[in-house]
Design brief:
The structure is a homodimer. By secondary structure, chain A is α/β, with parallel strands linked by helices. Chain A has 2 domains: 145 residues, Aspartate Aminotransferase, domain 1, CATH 3.90.1150.10; 246 residues, Type I PLP-dependent aspartate aminotransferase-like (Major domain) (Aspartate Aminotransferase, domain 2), CATH 3.40.640. Helices cover 35% and strands 13% of the residues of chain A. In chain A, the strands form 3 sheets. Chain A has a 7-stranded mixed sheet with strand order 2-8-7-6-5-3-4, with helices on both faces. A 4-stranded antiparallel sheet of chain A has the order 9-10-13-12, with helices on one face. In chain A, strands 1-11 form a two-stranded parallel sheet. In chain A, helix 6 links the parallel strand 3 and strand 4. In chain A, helix 1 runs antiparallel to helix 12 and helix 10 packs parallel to helix 12. The longest helix of chain A has 22 residues. The first copy, chain A, is globular.
């Protein structure tokens, strides 16, 4: 594909107009929306409204007058269709990490005779770390990791909960949600999916797959801004059975009775803990709103096509890169990783040239293709720059080897 | 005191100019800064900058370029002098509830042979609820509540940690931090103070009192906005000894190595869990900044004087109210509660007349006097309105009896 062909494909793309909803910096090709989504153009005005008109003018009355008290449930309900859930099965709350703790602990408590939280090595670190935190607090529990290829066979009657990330943060591999969930259920285990790299990027159908529990991230494909609140999902049938150990007052059945004893709220509300972060939720709501009314199957297909084009062009134009993601789009998320011994410096050289991807240790150059605002010409230009960097050995500059705090 | 005298006192107040730093609504007397602090005038522009210039323009690079990665520690260090702590002893993180869980669980783990989390009945609900959550997850642990008057005597060698709120949310009673902390230590227990109604309102000296652990709220006297991130304090000597069970990737020693095993970061950073909420932290930073350079002892003395005036005027002009707060300012926070059988409807009648206080079940009318932006004339006018409401029985309107979601 030539640059002109890529440009023509953008011109013919019925979803191309969605890009105009985002404030993308001029001259930058941004392929890191899987780490931090772009800014919706409506977000600044929304935050100004919440801050100046709601907080500034109505102060404490804002909790009722402006729906702050319901915001976590309301935005959860708007996320629900993106993940195949019913509106009251999703709640915006805390961070992905904190939500993992709530749901893993609740799952372990619901399976008192089973010792094991089962996951895979190389899962996103915070998933494993939070599981270790849960196991450390609960006597007789442990975290067991089994390589993905053997994981399903390792589910036995000692497994309380299986914890996997639907789309792997590094490889982009998409797991078979329906089959693995069924395998967990066949052994009596609960299934918890981390949707951080899925929600808004690929089709997710929690209800159809019979999923028990899920968590997800607000600042990646949902475009909620840096450190946006996360979300959690609890299947309706389990909501009255499970108990969050983070039994904060906002998850209480009657928080404003100020009683001494915790009594969980009915439904998903019991998984709320402290006072919800209103500024963050407002920004997340604007992010989620960008996908409403969008033809989501077409959007997901576009993400796959962008990834396919990137793989094809890198393999055509750049030597020394080994594809570290599934080649089959059906088993991939919306980001693509290539391994290269100099991946870190190459990534830095690209960033210096305003092609923004990221590096994942030890040797992966990862590019994300958020289909809401990424075009085919972006992909072409990114690979053109990569080819130029490789051709000129531009990466071979000591300045590109110094690691920053966040890479 | 007459209204003219109150006005004259404002005119003579060297701290009066601080009020101009806040965007207070015209015609409202706001006496609920202890529930939700007012909007600093600099906050809207700061958020616009973070959203449009930092997130919008620099996207993922914002983590390094704009100090997002250090924001939780940086703002914690700015809160530290308000609570008598060293800069690296305070961290902004999560909600007050989640921080309570981290520190209570860490304390219990550090005292493995002691079963009890000791608190008082009627402590702020989320403190008790989170303690119950911790006890529910850890075999053999329990929450014991003992009436405050007998609490010190109840500290024995089975107490792992004593949990109290420094200024009681309802009564405004200020506890003797030094004495109670010493009593806990004498029995080998750790001491955790909730500073939600203290920080920014009264003098707090965690280091001088030898306090082990503390948490506090960002949206009350710190003026961080609705649902602002909270803060936590861990005494330096304990930081390497204690372990948060919420062992998220942002508390890891090397989060970007993406290893499978959790290893806590050195120092206070280990008490961070997920990705920090950048919009919320930025708003909190603006709130905290309003107190920098302010003569804090004078500010706290003003808060006491405002409360004293309110008590004197209510008792002079309104019948049927029983003071439910300490009369001695030395043992009070910056809010005052009066009990009255019709407190709920009276509160609603006042709100309808734009005097904003709040109600706490079952019968308390609570007024907060945030000394940064509350004046003596405000107090006079609030009591004048209260007297008018009582005189006209204006509260005796069915409309004022309907409880809203947040009261």
């Amino acid at each position: 594909m030539t640059r002109d062909e890529a440009r023509a494909r953008d011109a013919a793309d019925p979803l191309r107009g969605l890009r105009d909803r985002f404030a993308l910096p001029e001259g930058t090709i941004y392929l890191d929306g899987n780490s931090l989504g772009a800014l919706p153009k409506t977000t600044p005005a929304r935050l100004t409204q919440v801050i100046e008109e709601q907080w500034g003018r109505d102060l404490i009355a804002g909790w009722n007058a402006h729906g702050w008290i319901d915001a976590a449930a309301r935005v959860g309900a708007r996320i629900a269709p993106l993940v195949g859930a019913r509106p009251r099965e999703v709640l915006v709350a805390d961070s992905t990490s904190v939500n993992l703790f709530k749901l893993l602990a609740a799952a372990c408590t619901a399976r008192p005779d089973r010792a094991t939280i089962l996951s895979e090595p190389g899962n996103f670190p915070t998933d494993l770390y939070m599981a270790q935190g849960v196991a450390g607090m609960m006597v007789g529990r442990r975290v067991k990791t089994v390589a993905f290829d053997s994981l399903v066979q390792a589910i036995d009657d000692d497994v309380a909960v299986v914890l996997l990330t639907h789309v792997h943060y590094k490889s982009g591999a998409k797991r078979d949600m329906a089959a693995i969930t069924a395998a967990a259920h066949a052994e009596g285990a609960l299934m918890l999916w981390d949707l951080s790299h899925s929600a808004g990027a690929v089709a997710v159908d929690l209800n159809r797959c019979g999923v028990d529990l899920a968590v997800g991230c607000g600042y990646k494909y949902l475009n909620g801004g840096p450190g946006a609140p996360a979300f959690l999902y609890v299947a309706q049938a389990l909501q009255e059975v499970l108990h969050s150990p983070l039994s904060g007052w906002m998850g209480h059945a009657a928080p404003f009775d100020f009683g001494d004893d915790y009594a969980p709220a009915p439904g998903i509300a019991r998984f709320q803990c402290g006072t919800p972060p209103i500024l963050g939720i407002a920004a997340l709501e604007e992010g989620v709103a960008q996908m409403e009314g969008v033809d989501m199957p077409a959007l997901f297909a576009k993400g796959q096509a962008l990834c396919d084009l990137y793989i094809a062009l890198v393999e055509e134009r750049c030597d020394g890169f080994a594809l570290a993601s599934p080649r089959d789009a059906a088993w991939r998320g919306s980001h693509v990783s290539f391994a290269h011994p100099h991946a870190y410096a190459i990534c830095q050289a690209l960033i210096a040239r305003r092609v923004i991807g990221d590096f994942r240790a030890p040797d992966v150059l990862r590019m994300g293709f958020a289909p809401l605002y990424t075009g085919f010409e972006d992909v072409w230009c990114a690979v053109d720059m990569l080819a130029a960097v490789m051709e000129a050995r531009a990466w071979d500059d000591p300045a590109y080897r110094v690691r920053a705090a966040v890479t």
